[in-house]
From TrEMBL:
<feature type="transmembrane region" description="Helical">
    <location>
        <begin position="228"/>
        <end position="251"/>
    </location>
</feature>
<keyword id="KW-0297">G-protein coupled receptor</keyword>
<keyword id="KW-1133">Transmembrane helix</keyword>
<feature type="domain" description="G-protein coupled receptors family 2 profile 2">
    <location>
        <begin position="164"/>
        <end position="437"/>
    </location>
</feature>
<dbReference type="Pfam" id="PF00002">
    <property type="entry name" value="7tm_2"/>
</dbReference>
<protein>
    <submittedName>
        <fullName>G-protein coupled receptor Mth2-like isoform X5</fullName>
    </submittedName>
</protein>
<dbReference type="GO" id="GO:0008528">
    <property type="term" value="F:G protein-coupled peptide receptor activity"/>
</dbReference>
<feature type="transmembrane region" description="Helical">
    <location>
        <begin position="271"/>
        <end position="292"/>
    </location>
</feature>
<feature type="transmembrane region" description="Helical">
    <location>
        <begin position="321"/>
        <end position="343"/>
    </location>
</feature>
<feature type="transmembrane region" description="Helical">
    <location>
        <begin position="413"/>
        <end position="435"/>
    </location>
</feature>
<keyword id="KW-0812">Transmembrane</keyword>
<dbReference type="InterPro" id="IPR017981">
    <property type="entry name" value="GPCR_2-like_7TM"/>
</dbReference>
<feature type="transmembrane region" description="Helical">
    <location>
        <begin position="196"/>
        <end position="216"/>
    </location>
</feature>
<comment type="similarity">
    <text>Belongs to the G-protein coupled receptor 2 family. Mth subfamily.</text>
</comment>
<keyword id="KW-0807">Transducer</keyword>
<feature type="transmembrane region" description="Helical">
    <location>
        <begin position="169"/>
        <end position="189"/>
    </location>
</feature>
<keyword id="KW-0472">Membrane</keyword>
Length: 510
């Protein structure tokens, strides 16, 4: 339902804005027009070397590629130079070309390194850049800052974009074998539960998304650009939805939720519903993107423009509406599930601790003094694994994109680190779900059974820690998240009272 509401809001916003009647080269007589957005560019006169103004006369460029009405009454004036020597002022609209930059851009600061001069040729000169560079009017624009000296906006250089792409590509290439190993390990294990099947689908789609994105980033010109863009979008959205399923299932399990009917039929019914959600809604999303791209007005800033400037969605609002918007909703839901799950863990531990209060008196004073430090470390380790297992770290990817979009600043190197970590997320998944002794024993057992050596398989099983439940279709065993078995709090407390011994529940690790 929340995604249906999201799509309706996108439709309202898209339909509400139309820049067909905006005269880019004229002062606006319509008093009701206080802001606009446009992808159009207009040459306002016969000048051979026009200066590029971002917004139409009487407007200035604001964040999010919006042009806002200015309070200034005097005409927009630009100083023209020959290198760094002043030549004349230009204020006649016929000497300008008007249009917001189509590329990702950033604001030139008032620092010496960003000092610029508009040349007689219409180019922008940066004397303090490497060797001094000239930028043509397709890669820069200038505009008022509503009362301040006019500011310059410059397309992000190809080298900078390539650096970002290479950082992400390296992280994704590192992730790929780990994602593949995670998928294959869970594929060969028998009697997989819903959580494990969901994890398989998640890592598979994330792997396919990484393959597509690395292909796009490392191949400047693709013959199948549109197809690669749609596949990348689909696989990423599906992976977000499967992560959402995993987070919901973990929370549902800790809450003691049970299905109807037998356990096997209940698990099967739940898996079907999860698959319809995680695969069906992304297909619907892809259809919406296709229809928007095909039938939306060409000049609309909300048009996806897949494969136009790059083999993905266009920068700005298309990225918001058709990718990061859905990712944000999914991540917010995951954070909510994480908080509820963490609180449930805390509640279970507290109730279990109360039941064992008498038994704890047997411990020595020294052990009682050491217990708080062990408990703090264990809780931190448990919640950190749960946090990473639920994919909450993806929020950093969304925040980095949002900050760069809203501020129009150069790509900050701090985001290289977070983007690399997210790209290398497959390594984290592998170490959480696969790289542990319990999983190695299960693989050994599976291998011996396949090789016709059941006696060796039984020997492996007999050496398994008896406090860890067997791998079954209805338990969250230590082969998954080291979290808990699917039993309610009442089941735990009654078991403790019945056995009347100091037995650790699966939430604790020895």
């Amino acid at each position: 339902m929340r995604f249906l509401v999201f799509y309706l809001s996108v439709f309202v916003v898209v339909c509400a804005e139309n820049d067909e009647d905006i005269k880019l080269c004229q002062y606006e007589n319509n008093l009701n027009l206080t802001k606009y957005t446009s992808n159009s560019t207009k040459v306002c006169g016969n000048s051979v070397n026009p200066v590029r103004k971002c917004c139409k006369p009487g407007f200035f460029l604001a964040p999010r590629r919006q042009c806002l009405k200015s309070n200034k009454t005097e005409p927009f004036t630009v100083q023209i130079y020959h290198r760094t020597e002043f030549v004349r002022n230009v204020s006649n609209i016929s000497d300008f070309v008007v249009g917001i930059l189509a590329c990702p851009y950033y604001k030139l600061d008032s620092t010496p390194s960003d000092e610029f001069y508009i040349q007689e040729t219409g180019d922008l000169y940066l004397p303090n850049a490497k060797l001094g560079i000239y930028v043509d009017n397709e890669r820069y624009c200038v505009d008022d800052r509503d009362g301040y000296r006019y500011m310059g906006f410059l397309c992000i250089g190809k080298d900078q974009l390539q650096t970002n792409r290479k950082v992400n590509a390296i992280g994704m290439i590192i992730s790929m074998p780990f994602l593949l190993m995670t998928f294959l390990v869970y594929l060969v294990l028998p009697e997989k539960n819903v959580h494990q099947v969901a994890l398989m689908f998640y890592v598979l789609h994330l792997l396919l998304a990484y393959v597509c994105l690395v292909t796009i980033n490392l191949s400047p010109h693709l013959d199948f650009c549109h197809a690669a863009a749609y596949m990348t979008l689909f696989f990423f959205v599906v992976s977000f939805f499967w992560m959402n399923v995993i987070c919901f299932d973990i929370w549902y399990t800790f809450s003691g939720g049970r299905g109807y009917g037998s356990k096997k039929s209940s698990e099967k019914r739940k898996l079907i519903l999860y698959t319809l959600y995680a695969e069906g809604l992304p297909l619907l999303h892809l259809l919406v993107v296709y229809l928007m791209d095909r039938y939306m007005d060409t000049d609309s800033i909300h048009k996806p423009n897949i494969g136009v400037t790059k083999c993905f969605l266009a920068d700005g609002f298309p990225n918001l509406w058709y990718f990061y918007g859905e990712a944000s909703i999914s991540v917010i839901a995951n954070i909510v599930f994480f908080i509820f799950t963490a609180l449930k863990i805390r509640q279970v531990k507290k109730e279990t601790s109360m039941l064992k209060q008498n038994e704890s008196k047997r411990h020595t004073f020294e052990k009682e003094q050491q217990r708080p430090l062990v408990s703090i470390f264990y809780r931190f380790n448990l919640y950190l694994k749960l946090l990473l297992a639920m994919g909450v770290n993806w929020s950093m990817e969304i925040i980095s994109w949002l900050v760069n979009w809203l501020t129009n600043e150069q790509y900050s190197y701090i985001w290289y680190i977070t983007d690399f970590v997210n790209a290398a997320y497959g390594v984290i998944i592998f170490f959480i779900f696969v790289f542990k002794k319990k999983m190695w024993k299960l693989l050994q057992k599976r291998y011996y059974n396949l090789m016709g050596k059941p006696h060796l398989a039984r020997a492996v099983t007999s050496t398994t820690d008896t406090r860890t439940s067997h791998y079954s279709s209805t338990n969250y065993s230590s082969a998954d998240t080291h979290l808990t078995d699917r039993t309610t709090i009442n089941d735990r407390t009654s078991a403790i009272n019945r056995n009347n011994r100091n037995e650790e529940i699966p939430l604790h690790r020895s």
